[in-house]
Design a protein that fits this description.
Elements (H helix, E strand, L loop, with lengths): L22 H11 L3 E4 L11 E7 L4 E8 L3 H12 L12 E9 L2 E9 L3 E2 L7 H17 L9 E2 H9 L4 H7 L12 H12 L2 H4 L4 E3 L8 E4 L4 E3 L6 E3 L3 H4 L2 H6 L4 H7 L8 H16 L13 H21 L4
Parallel strand pairs: 7-11
Antiparallel strand pairs: 1-2, 2-3, 3-5, 4-5, 6-9, 8-11, 9-10
Length: 330
């Protein structure tokens, strides 16, 4: 058993510097902000894309955070979506406000930049602490309450996306039949767990139904805890509709792997206190299958190889979390 890779979520991206952005985009952003840009800080290392992302100091003294990408990258659509979504989110959520947006063309390529308020904070996890986990759990509880029922129109529905082929729900069966290879380097009990993984995934139409607007990509690098202990959530570009507990559950396996007793937390929080265990395990099984898929393929265009290492870590920890709950490794 080789174990999961170590992933430093503070150093997973490969981002360009401010000076490499087209002059037309930098000028358009200064106009949108109403002041000159005095200094660009060091680009952040989190995320899996090559889009620009860094703190910026303005001539009027403000500090903001800017993300920018060309339309040749998938980050272009993600940044545009975030600029559209964030102003629609309820005020109860701790989300950096959008300050300005700007667009420009350079050599036939469209560019987009979005500026938000800068949060002086740190990423939780690596390792998780009980205090950070409690802070993040409380934030997830507030998010779930504020986003149920969804206040945003026209979001994709998770169960519809799964039914439409957006998730590899047949992967465990395909591995069992020999149609797909068993990914190497995972727990020795994985082959015997494949039938139960398939059975759990099959519960999704009931287990993952809901009317909550979900972040849908909640990871430690999409969270910031500021100097006052407030938890902020960033990167709101993959929203969908599903159960109120889904976002929080996505954090549990890695937190468990790093020493947090998530099983006790499940019984304490109102997010999951009355949720059938099989429904939680269905979501974890689905994410495990998603992460096992295409592990050894090249990363999508514009993404770094660290994306596949993240996948492997998540596949391992979600399987381990399920094994603890279902006795697979005993």
């Amino acid at each position: 058993m080789s174990g999961p890779p170590a992933v430093d979520y503070r150093a997973t991206s490969a981002r360009p510097g401010w000076s490499t952005l087209p002059g037309a985009l930098r000028e358009a952003l200064a106009v949108a902000l109403g002041t000159e840009i005095a200094e660009a800080g060091r680009v952040v290392g989190s995320g899996f894309t090559g889009g620009f992302a860094a703190p910026i100091r303005l001539a009027d003294g403000r500090e903001i955070f800017v993300k920018a990408a060309p339309d040749t990258m998938h980050a272009y659509g993600a940044y545009r979506r975030e600029a559209e979504i964030v102003p629609q989110l309820p005020s109860a959520l701790q989300v950096p406000a959008i300050v300005a947006t700007a667009g420009a063309a350079d050599s036939g390529i469209k560019w987009f930049a979005v500026a938000s308020e800068r949060i002086d904070g740190r990423m939780p996890g690596s390792p998780w602490t009980t205090n950070d986990f409690a802070t993040v759990t409380a934030a997830c509880e507030v998010m779930a309450q504020a986003l149920t029922p969804t206040p945003l129109p026209d979001l994709d529905v998770l169960v519809d996306d799964i039914a439409g082929g957006g998730w590899p729900i047949d992967l465990p069966a395909a591995i069992r039949s020999g149609e797909r290879p068993l990914p190497p380097g995972f727990q020795p009990w994985l082959p015997t767990a494949l039938p139960e993984l398939s059975d759990l995934i099959a519960l999704y139409p009931e287990a993952l139904a809901g009317d909550t607007a979900m972040h849908s990509d909640l990871r430690p690098d999409n969270l910031l805890i500021d100097q006052t202990g407030q938890c902020w959530t960033v990167d709101w570009n993959w929203l969908s509709v599903g159960p109120a507990w889904f976002d929080w559950l996505c954090l549990l396996p890695v937190a468990q792997y790093e020493g947090i007793d998530t099983q006790a937390a499940i019984r304490r929080t109102p997010l999951t206190a009355d949720v059938p265990a099989d429904h939680l395990d269905c979501a974890a099984a689905l994410i495990a299958a998603y992460m096992l898929d295409n592990l050894d393929a090249p990363p999508p265009p514009g993404c770094t190889p660290e994306l596949r290492r993240h996948q492997r870590l998540y596949a391992w920890t979600f399987l381990d979390w399920l094994a603890l709950r279902r006795g697979w490794s005993s």
